[in-house]
Write a structure and sequence with these properties.
The complex is a heterotetramer of chains A (about 240), B (about 400), C (about 625) and D (about 250).
Chain A: E1 5-14, E2 17-27, E3 32-36, H1 43-50, E4 56-57, E5 60-63, E6 66-67, H2 73-78, E7 81-84, H3 96-103, H4 116-122, H5 124-128, H6 139-151, E8 157-161, H7 169-184, E9 188-193, H8 196-202, E10 205-210, E11 213-219, H9 220-225, H10 227-234
Parallel strand pairs in A: 3-9, 3-10, 7-8, 8-9
Antiparallel strand pairs in A: 1-2, 1-4, 1-5, 5-6, 10-11
Helix pairs in contact in A: 3-6
Chain B: H1 2-27, E1 30-36, H2 42-61, E2 70-76, H3 81-94, E3 100-102, H4 106-119, E4 123-125, E5 142-144, H5 149-163, E6 167-171, H6 176-192, E7 197-202, H7 211-220, E8 225-228, H8 232-245, E9 252-259, H9 261-267, E10 276-279, H10 288-301, H11 307-326, H12 331-338, E11 342-345, E12 348-351, E13 363-371, E14 374-383, H13 392-398
Parallel strand pairs in B: 1-2, 1-3, 3-4, 4-5, 6-7, 6-8, 8-9, 9-10
Antiparallel strand pairs in B: 10-13, 11-12, 13-14
Helix pairs in contact in B: 2-11, 3-4, 5-6, 7-8, 11-12
Chain D: E1 4-13, E2 16-26, E3 31-35, H1 42-50, E4 57-62, E5 65-66, H2 72-78, E6 80-83, H3 95-106, H4 122-131, H5 147-160, E7 165-169, H6 177-194, E8 197-201, H7 205-211, E9 214-219, E10 222-227, H8 229-234, H9 236-243
Helix pairs in contact in D: 3-4, 3-5, 4-5
Classes of the chains: A alpha/beta (about 240), B alpha/beta (about 400), C mainly alpha (about 625), D alpha/beta (about 250).
């Protein structure tokens, strides 16, 4: 099976400090890959580099078989690669419906498109506050909206950056449900997490990143079995 | 004999050598420094430059002055006093010019006057109007050609007296030129028209007139006469609003400078007919000398001469006459040749009064009238400046030297 | 005052308010989305007026009637909109990531370029546009005549407000614009072509500027002074209304319109001051205008001075530099010395601004206020007290410091763009006072005869005096930058909450910085006054403030040597270009734009960066 | 006499109530955790105690002295130190200078202009840095530090004012697990030895339950529960509203 997202030899720097070294990873259609690592390991940078939000070099950076290296961010997004940022970054001045409108893109062939109504089915509490401004929503609600907004673009894959960070435990559980639901819809997810327990609950495969390098890549079960690796890379 | 001849030969040789270098010195051009706001005030300064360039050509074609051609080294003064004095310094110290002339804005003129005084070099202000140049800030080195504020307002007040209007409203831009013109008007109208009163005064910020509000405010005071000092974009706005709202109907309107082509041309066919103005009816002046100037100017530039063109042309001829009379480019000699000297110019005979270095050039006063597609002056008369100049006592009181 | 007069005056105010709003609305929109304070907005307004004043008569010639007139107005606005697109694509697009001060500088470059281009294209003369067919005649209101065109203008303001509201609230484009206002990167990550969005916004903003200008032609002759006279008022409107808020701009324009209409009855001589006083009062009460919000200065904020290891042999090099400068009179001619004197004066001026911007993070757009106060303080002392130079210098310094204390007291309550605008307002108020209080300040003629005492009357002597004072002041300011006081300023710049939480009284600290910087600029102003022999209001004007910013930014705000290098480069550039061509504004503008693009960290900063990259 | 007493604090933004009659006390040497879901009003309460936000009603007392409306600077002088949710340090300075700056302010020298800031209190600063384990990085620029290290520097800065009360807003947010434990252990020992009272908010339940001596639970601006970690763990209302029933997801091994 050809990977949906194919990354080989990705490196990135901030100024003169190199933060990513030769990262390679693949995401296949409909799977959830967890990119696990502690803060500052390079998770967020990896996601941003894929989207062209930070300047990076790569031997191969392809989405659906097409090279996306050097493309402007919006073109990458339009190819069907969604992004949910770490700090949610919803538009607080805009209402829920307007936030969704910003995310709307033309539908892609082969999948039933996400409509506002369908999303409200998946996120019932958003439906109740469709006219509310983003600034008046709680953190958990904002996180849900951020995901819904990205789904409005009918992506084939979503880069999901630390969805559990800073969220009440009860919402974290709801988040896991949502990711499972997306997976059921056939959306692939590249999840960045330092909460490995959360990642383990929903991930099919794990990639462990440390100091900008991939330390481990394999089935989630193997990662869970390797306590030494966890202790070394995550301090647990 | 042999000895004598030897000496003779030597003397001849020395004479020849000296003669050759003297001859060379004589053909080297006389450098004159010029500066003006060519970028920022192009509408006024470019015609002025065209005027003096025409004069330079004519003069040099006739062999220059003292047998040497005139070379004018021209610079942009940036429209600010700082740039102007720096540029002037460059002209004086680097280029070694013999005298300076130019500048348009009053504040630059004042700063240049002070500069001239400090550096002891002659500066001839052609255009700036402020009285300060020849009064409070006047000095031995600074001369002015154009009739100043005081003189032009005086000519208009004479007309005010004739009109019989008593209730006067003033509208003037709120900066030195506007305020000093308004102050002179207030003083002179009370002196010459018994019972005259000022019923309204409006001082819009320069270039920012709220014309509608200003016109309403003036109208509210119900004046018989209006004295206008606004110019440029403020003037056009004022004229349009005033016309639409009927402000000028049945009133005497006196307006400074509005009859100059500089201001009439932008007004196109909307000239406020009947306004009494100072200006320059270039197309109606019939003196042959002036006609020759107009013809030459139009032939060369295919454009209407402005008052600036006339001043530029005049100033260069006056400089030529001065140097010729001085016989050298020495500053003291030039000053001596300028003071109380008479010049035969295209605008008639002009005297450079010695006590304030203000020329007696006058102004044309008349009524605005529409001629075809643009405005002009009718019933105009040239008022020689001599009788409008500030009295010697006033000059002495104001000047420090 | 009878009722009909009051009514007419109110209508006059409404007409002005409408015109002002239409233009200012574009400025606030562009700022909202791109975060660029577009100095060139007034230039676009001017281009709109010139285009319409040229195009509409031509169209009326073809077919006389209201349709031609209004079509001509709209086409002119569209042309200006396209000019906005050109500016966006060629320049702004390349500098969205640059520190906001650089963006401001680049747009000021555009102002210079357009000033010359307008003269080249439309000619130097004012162009009186035609009146609107069918609207020439006045209407009678309460027994007074009122121009019918003004009634159209009064309606146009709310119409534009409604249209803009509709676009922003009811169209996808508007939703995207509002989203981009908040988070550009996220908008791009959601698949929106933000380049197109920005271009669209610039088109809309420029279109509104052009429309504002074009609508003026039946009232005002298109003239070359329109750009700077409208931009100051547009700034006031957008700041009073709250940056980025369209309804705020509308409200602010209404208030300003009425204030001007009735203000001229009460204060006929202080119209300029009234508007800026309003702004000062509003910002003192509501620091973010009517509907504005605190500006969060993100990663694009220019970073200032940072701790670095003292350069090896730095003291030695500086000493050699000073000695070389002191030897200049031995080789230079008088003119060179004059230029060198001015470079030193402006270096000192820019350096005093460094204390505010580079150290304190306080972006002042009105630093000319203190320069001018110093110059006027000296000149007034000479003129009114007949004091010699030795007494006038301290007087200038004192006046500048007092002014800075007063202005600073208002300003330190604000932050970001509002702070910048408040300083601009303060400088404009002082400018207006110097310009309009003729009895004391000499108005636009200024004060002349401010020459140095005999012992420094010579060029060389005065140059050496300037050098000495500049070196002493720069060393003093450098000392301050490295002192606990300077560190505390930097601390407040780096993180205000952290600085407060460790007990630093941030506002007082900044207030003191204003006084020190003001005093420094005051010394520069005094030196300048005596080197020129005169002062005039232009010393307090916007271009002088922009000069200081340009020199500082060209040199680089991260370094102590930056302002010195910047002032030398700018001065020499101007000195070399001005005699060559009357198109010097065009070339100066292009040079500024070019330098912003090539040296995004300033000359010294960029060169040091190159050095470090190589190392 | 409690170290800190908070009495019926109220705050509303627009119509939204962010804090309603919040009252509690912090004692010397204790670590009191303030938890609750996002938007429950933790930051609001925190900022009212820190002086960043004035309350609509209510009082804040430090050692029985009202400081309700005191500025952050005054609170610092009274003995309140704090760290921020997103670490706030002076990025243009070195690590040591950061702490020196705090010491300069503590000794009321921030108006001095004739001396070099770098020479002030360097030894004391190094002392504090070694207490938080950052002495080796003293001369590095703060801008190049890893996030967890910035948090340590922040702690040293807060301690420079010799506080009686330390406010820590999510002290471990953004840190790795091992670092979290280490930082909290360090904080704990400092609290005990110096008799400092610590009030902190935290999302990481391991940190909360592992280090807090008492816990307050905030929900929609009101305190719904207060007590020892064990009591809170058993509280049904808290479980339902906040903790949920699947501890596996919170990261506990």
């Amino acid at each position: 099976m050809t990977p949906l997202l194919d990354i080989q030899g990705l490196s990135a720097s901030y100024g003169r400090a190199q933060v990513l070294f030769d990262i390679s990873l693949q995401l296949h259609p409909g799977e959830v890959v967890a990119l696990i690592g502690r803060n500052g390991a390079g998770k967020t940078t990896t996601l941003k580099a894929i989207l062209g939000l930070v300047i990076a070099r790569a031997e191969r950076l392809a989405f659906k078989g097409q090279s996306i290296a050097g493309l402007p961010t919006y073109r990458i997004a339009r190819l069907g690669l969604g992004y949910v940022a770490e700090d949610r970054r919803i538009f607080t001045d805009l209402t829920v419906e307007e936030n969704l409108e910003v995310g709307r893109q033309a539908q892609r062939a082969g999948r039933s498109p996400w409509s506002r109504e369908r999303l409200f089915g998946l996120f019932p509490n958003l439906a109740e506050m469709r006219g509310r401004r983003g600034s008046q929503m709680s953190g958990g609600e904002q996180q849900m909206l951020a995901i819904a907004r990205t789904l409005m673009g009918n992506p084939d894959a979503i880069l999901l950056d630390e969805p559990s960070e800073g969220i009440a435990p009860v919402i974290v559980q709801a988040m896991a449900e949502v990711i499972r639901a997306m997976k059921a819809e056939g959306v692939a997810v590249l999840l960045s997490e330092q909460n490995w327990a959360f990642a383990a609950a929903i991930g099919d495969r794990a990639c462990v990143i440390e100091r900008g390098t991939i330390r481990f890549a394999g089935p989630m079960a193997d990662f869970l079995a390797d306590e030494a690796l966890r202790a070394e890379t995550l301090g647990v | 004999m042999a000895k004598t001849s030897m000496t003779g030969w030597l003397a001849l040789g020395v004479a020849l050598a000296l003669g050759a270098s003297a001859a060379q010195a004589q053909t080297a051009p006389i450098k004159i420094g010029e500066l003006n706001s060519y970028a920022k005030q192009a509408a006024f300064t470019v015609p002025y430059r065209d005027g003096w360039r025409l004069a330079v050509e004519e003069i040099n074609a006739k062999g220059g002055v003292l047998g040497r051609p005139i070379e004018v080294i021209s610079r942009d003064d940036g429209g600010t006093t700082g740039d102007a004095t720096r540029v002037a310094d460059e002209l004086v110290t680097r280029e070694g010019v013999s005298l300076l002339f130019g500048s348009f804005l009053s504040n630059v003129g004042v700063a240049m006057a002070d500069y001239a005084n400090q550096k002891k070099i002659v500066y001839i202000a052609a255009e700036p109007l402020t009285d300060a140049i020849t009064m409070a800030q006047g000095n031995r080195y600074t001369f002015r050609i154009r009739p100043n504020n005081f003189m032009q307002v005086g000519m208009l007040v004479e007309q005010a007296k004739a009109s019989g209007a008593k209730r006067w409203a003033i509208v003037a831009p709120n900066y030195e030129y506007g305020q000093s013109a308004a102050a002179v008007f207030k003083r002179l109208i009370k002196e010459s028209v018994p019972g005259a009163e000022i019923v309204a005064e409006q001082y819009p910020a320069l270039g920012k007139i709220e014309a509608g509000a200003t016109v309403s405010a003036l109208e509210q005071a119900k004046p018989d006469g209006i004295f206008n000092v606004t110019f440029g974009p403020d003037l056009t706005q004022f004229v349009r609003e005033g016309n639409t709202r009927g402000l000028f109907e049945g009133k005497t309107v006196l307006s400074l400078l509005t009859g100059e082509p500089e201001w009439l041309l932008p007004l196109k066919d909307e000239v406020p007919e009947g306004w009494i103005v100072t200006g320059y009816p270039w197309d109606e002046i019939t003196e042959p000398k002036h006609k020759a100037f107009v013809d030459a100017y139009r032939a060369k530039y295919n454009d209407t001469p402005r008052l600036g063109s006339l001043l530029g042309y005049m100033v260069l001829y006056m400089i030529r006459d001065t140097i010729e009379r001085a016989g050298s480019t020495d500053t003291d000699a030039i000053i001596k040749a300028l003071e109380d000297a008479k010049f035969d110019t295209v605008a008639g005979t002009v005297t450079m009064r010695g006590i304030d270095n203000q020329s007696s050039m006058g102004a044309w006063v008349g009524k605005l009238v529409l001629k075809g597609k643009s405005g002009g002056m009718s019933d105009w008369k040239y008022n020689d400046g001599t009788s409008y100049m500030p009295s010697e006592a006033e000059v002495k009181a104001a000047r420090k030297d | 005052m009878d009722l009909s007069f009051v009514a007419i005056q109110a209508l006059n105010g409404l007409a002005s308010a409408s015109s002002l709003f239409i233009t200012a609305c574009g400025l606030t929109l562009v700022f909202g989305v791109t975060r660029i304070v577009n100095f060139a907005h007034g230039s676009l307004y001017m281009v709109g007026a010139f285009t319409a004043a040229t195009l509409v008569p031509w169209m009326l010639e073809l077919w006389f009637g209201p349709v031609s007139f209004w079509l001509g107005i709209v086409i002119s606005a569209l042309i200006v909109g396209l000019l906005g697109v050109v500016i966006e694509v060629l320049l702004l697009r390349r500098i969205y990531g640059a520190p906001e001060l650089f963006q401001l500088l680049a747009t000021f470059g555009i102002v210079l370029v357009l000033q010359d281009l307008v003269v080249q294209i439309f000619g130097p003369q004012d162009i009186l546009g035609p009146r609107a067919p069918g609207l020439r005649a006045p209407v009678e209101i309460l027994g007074r005549r009122f121009p019918s065109y003004e009634l159209v203008l009064i309606a146009a303001g709310p119409a534009v407000l409604a249209a803009v509201w509709f676009v922003l609230r009811k169209t996808r484009f508007g939703t995207l614009i509002r989203a981009a206002t908040q988070d550009r990167e996220m908008v791009a990550a959601l698949g929106v072509n933000q380049a197109l969005l920005f271009t669209g916004t610039l088109f809309l903003g420029a279109f509104l500027a052009g429309l504002g200008g074009a609508l003026q032609i039946p009232r005002v002759a298109a003239n070359t002074g329109m750009d700077l006279s409208i931009i100051a008022e547009c700034f006031v409107v957008t700041v009073v209304g709250g940056m980025g808020s369209v309804p705020g701009a509308f409200l602010a324009a209404l208030i300003i319109g009425q204030l001007q209409a009735f203000g001229i009855l009460i204060f006929p001589k202080s119209t300029l001051v009234v508007v800026f006083l309003l702004m000062a009062v509003v910002l003192a009460i509501r620091p973010y205008g009517f509907f504005g919000r605190p500006e969060i200065l993100g990663g694009t904020h220019a970073v200032g001075i940072a701790s670095r290891k003292p350069m090896a042999r730095g003291t030695l090099l500086a000493t050699i530099g000073i000695v070389l400068l002191a030897c200049l009179p031995l080789i230079g001619d008088p003119y060179l010395l004059k230029v060198a004197t001015e470079i030193l004066v402006f270096a000192l001026f820019a350096f005093s601004l460094q204390l505010l911007i580079g150290v304190g993070g306080l972006v002042s757009f009105g630093h000319a206020a203190f320069f001018g106060l110093g110059a006027y303080g000296s000149a007034l002392t000479v003129k009114w007290l007949g004091a010699p130079m030795e007494a006038a210098f301290p007087a200038g310094l004192l006046l500048a410091a007092l002014g800075a204390a007063l202005i600073g007291a208002f300003v330190v309550r604000l932050s970001g763009i509002y702070l910048a605008m408040m300083t601009l307002a303060a400088a404009q108020i002082l400018y207006a006072i110097a310009f309009q209080w003729v009895e004391v300040t000499g108005g636009d003629n200024g004060i002349v005869g401010v020459w140095p005492s005999n012992w420094v009357a010579g060029r060389s002597a005065y140059y050496l005096l300037t050098l000495a004072l500049t070196v002493i002041t720069v060393l003093f300011l450098k000392k301050i930058i490295e002192s606990p006081f300077g560190y505390a300023l930097r601390a407040a710049r780096d993180s205000e909450p952290r600085a407060e939480a460790i007990g630093i009284a941030v506002r007082q600290q900044r207030w003191l910085a204003f006084i020190l910087a003001g005093a420094g600029a005051g010394i520069a102003g005094s030196l300048y006054a005596f080197s020129r022999g005169s002062v005039d209001p232009s010393l307090l004007g916007i271009p002088t403030s922009v000069d200081a910013l340009t020199m500082l930014l060209l040199g680089g705000i991260q370094t102590i040597a930056g302002p010195l290098a910047g002032s030398a480069v700018l001065h020499i550039l101007r000195d070399q270009i001005m005699p060559l061509t009357s198109l010097w504004r065009l070339f100066l503008g292009l040079s500024i734009i070019g330098m912003v693009l090539v040296f995004p960290r300033g000359l010294v900063g960029t060169i040091r960066q190159w050095g470090e990259d190589r190392a | 006499m409690s170290l800190l007493a908070v009495e019926r604090l109220n705050k509303a933004f627009g119509g939204v109530v962010a804090a309603h009659d919040v009252s509690f006390a912090v004692e010397r040497g204790e670590m009191l955790a303030l938890i609750g879901p996002n938007g429950a009003g933790k930051s609001t309460v925190f900022n009212m105690i820190g002086g960043q936000l004035p309350p609509d009603r209510g009082a804040v007392l430090l050692e029985d002295k009202a400081i309700t409306l005191a500025s952050p600077q005054e609170r610092f002088r009274q003995g309140i130190g704090r760290t921020f949710q997103i670490a706030q340090a002076f990025h243009s300075m070195t690590v040591c200078e950061n702490v020196q700056m705090a010491l300069i302010s503590h000794h009321r020298e921030s108006r001095a202009i004739w001396t070099e800031a770098r020479q002030h209190h360097r030894r004391d600063a190094l002392d504090l840095l070694s207490q938080v384990g950052m002495a080796e990085a003293a001369d590095r620029s703060c801008s190049v530090l890893a996030y967890g290290d910035v948090k340590r520097v922040e702690l040293a800065i807060a301690l420079a004012g010799e506080p009686k009360l330390l406010l820590m807003d999510e002290p471990t947010a953004g840190m790795a697990f091992r670092e979290r434990a280490a930082l909290m252990d360090l904080t704990h020992s400092i609290a005990r030895t110096r008799r400092i009272g610590i009030l902190f908010t935290e999302h990481d339940m391991d940190v909360v339950f592992g280090h807090a001596s008492r816990i307050l639970v905030l929900l929609r601006g009101e305190i719904i529960a207060a007590g020892s970690p064990a009591e809170i763990r058993e509280n049904a209302q808290v479980r339902q509203a906040y903790l949920g029933n699947a501890p596996a997801l919170t990261g506990a091994p």
